[in-house]
Write a structure and sequence with these properties.
Layout (H helix, E strand, L loop, with lengths): L3 H6 L7 E4 L3 E5 L7 E7 L14 H17 L7 E4 L15 E5 L4 H7 L3
Length: 118
C-alpha cells in the first residue's frame, strides 16, 4: 500500500489540488495551522529530509522555486509566509513522504493597529 501523499498524487484520494506539474503536487492541508496552509509534495517518494540523496539536489531546489511560485500565485509573497519541513516523528512529521508546508495569511501588527484588534 502506498502512503497517503502517493495516493493523493495518483488521484486515488480526492483533495483540493491547487497546482501540479511533472514533479510536484500542491494541495491544501486538511488540518491548517494558518489561514493559508499548503503542502508542496514531490511526486517522487522520499521519506524525509534524512532520506535525500545527492541526486535529489535539483528536485529540492525546484521545491523552493515552486513554493515561491505558489506564494506569488496566492498573493502572500509580498506580505510574507513561512516554509516548514518536519523531519521524522520526533520533528512532527506525520506522513512519511517529504513535503514542505507553506503557511501565511496572518494579520501583521500594522493591520491589527489599523483595525483596532489585538
Amino acid at each position: 500500500m502506498s502512503c497517503l501523499f502517493c495516493q493523493i498524487i495518483n488521484k486515488e484520494i480526492p483533495t483540493d489540488i491547487i497546482y501540479e506539474d511533472d514533479e510536484f503536487v500542491v494541495f491544501k492541508d486538511i488540518k491548517p495551522k494558518a489561514p493559508v496552509h499548503f503542502l508542496i509534495v514531490p511526486r517522487k517518494h522520499i521519506i524525509s529530509i534524512n532520506h535525500l540523496k545527492f541526486q535529489d539536489k535539483e528536485l529540492i531546489g525546484k521545491l523552493f522555486l515552486i513554493a515561491q511560485k505558489i506564494a506569488k500565485k496566492q498573493k502572500v509573497a509580498k506580505k510574507g509566509y513561512k516554509l516548514i519541513f518536519n523531519v521524522g516523528k520526533g520533528g512532527g512529521q506525520v506522513i512519511d513522504h517529504l513535503h514542505l508546508h507553506l503557511l501565511a495569511g496572518w494579520r501583521t501588527n500594522e493591520e491589527r493597529d489599523v483595525h483596532g484588534m489585538p
